[in-house]
Amino acid sequence: MKQSNSPKHLPFFISKMEKEKLPPVVIDTFSYYYKKILAGETGLVFDKDIRPVDPNEIEDFNNIKDFAPAGRNVLKNAVIITLNGGLGTSMGLTTAKSLLEVKNGKTFLEIILNQTEQLGVKLALMNSFSTHEDTISAISKLNPIDFPLLFLQHKFPKILREGFGPATWPDNTELEWNPPGHGDIYTALYTSGTLQNLINDKIIFAFISNSDNLGATMDESLLGYFSENKFPVMMEVAERTPADLKGGHLARHRNGRYILREAAQCPNDELNAFRDIGCYGFFNTNNIWINLIYLKDLIEKNKIIHLPMMCNPKTLDPRNEESPAVYQIETAMGAAISLFEDAAAIKVPRSRFFPVKKCNDLLAVRSDCFPLTKENNLTLNPKRKSDTIKINLDPKYYGKIDLFDERFTEGVPSLVDCESLTIEGDVRFEKNILIKGKVKIKNNNISQAVIKEGTILEGNVIL
């Protein structure tokens, strides 16, 4: 990374952020990271500075069921905070991803609202500027008993890699800004007044998760374990598999504290170690529990949240490789585990982690692999032999949601007995299809192939 000894551009960044009416603490936070970049810091976390986590030091979800009564007792003091800033552009969506129909005709948002209503727990949503209006409109139509709290994620200006000045793009000034990562949630809670309002209402235990992960629910055992042990923050982790090589992993820093290392923080020459699931055996599910009193004290003591930085090299316009090269400063929510000496991690089953990032994931969640209970909780079908399923759909025909839906107009196949599914070419499915074992479907024809009603598919299928 090029280095500059003088923060001569910082006043221009500050002026730019002030014109956008960003709160002073956000400006101070950006300035803190910007000075780090000028000093040559990269945000990288090296193997020499961390060590793997001993599995014996992490409590197992299966051993904390006795904490459920304690959790029920403090439900009135708990809030579910859902990250709702994503548009789902990788799936061809132009609205908030949480407005996508995901199960039984219900959207992510509708299911989350139903879950919180049945629990009697407060719900808060962190929206982005891109999802805020869509979300308000959708909630108003659903007319919930208790309208959720809404607050907005902030934004950071992009930094030119050449000269470290503010990036400008007159054709589309929105491209001059980047979301600061979900680590911004702590600052956004504070600056919006939401943090203080919750504390005023005696709500101090927050469970935070992504809107596209319906496995992440307010579990009474976890709440009880978290509250009774008076942890400041607790991360839910799961055992890594070969499918989890990109996600951030848990480690111990040489200072003794837990640390989260994301892929963007790993040096290129250490990527093999990063991907070694035998070495770094736990990944962050992005289900985080935080005590709001501890959070408020931390912010007011330090003025800003000093989360580990990710400095991501990008192009200013992500769709134009000829546009100027920039840095985007981002932070991860789970990185808060490194801020507290008494932070905890707990191993949870994968049933608490099945996010929908692509249409591959949507097919699994819409199938009978994951039934929806009467409590509106997505669960793993007990008939399944494995808690994971590998799905690879031809992106040309299934990569975007409209194309995907056109090929499953009569419902998705039964996948409860499926280990893996690969589809190459254009294939449409009629109703009541069963897919069993390891299946690869290949359509060698130019025209669309149709799997007829009642078909049972096994092994390799050439059409």
Task: Please summarize what this structure is.
By secondary structure, the chain is of the alpha/beta class.
Q: What's the end-to-end separation, in Å?
A: 51 Å
Low-pLDDT ranges: none
CATH superfamily name of the largest domain? Spore Coat Polysaccharide Biosynthesis Protein SpsA, Chain A
Strand order of the largest sheet: 2-18-12-15-11-3-6-7
> What summary fits the major beta sheet?
8 strands, mixed
Helix content: 10-25%
What is the strand content? 15-25%
Give the CATH topology of the largest domain: Spore Coat Polysaccharide Biosynthesis Protein SpsA, Chain A
Task: Sum up the overall morphology in one term.
Answer: globular
Q: Could you say what the CATH architecture of the largest domain is?
A: Alpha-Beta Complex
Could you say how many structural domains there are in total? 2
Structural class: alpha/beta
Count of helical stretches: 13
What's the CATH C level of the largest domain? Alpha Beta
Write down the Rg: 23 Å
Oligomer: single chain
Counted beta strands: 24
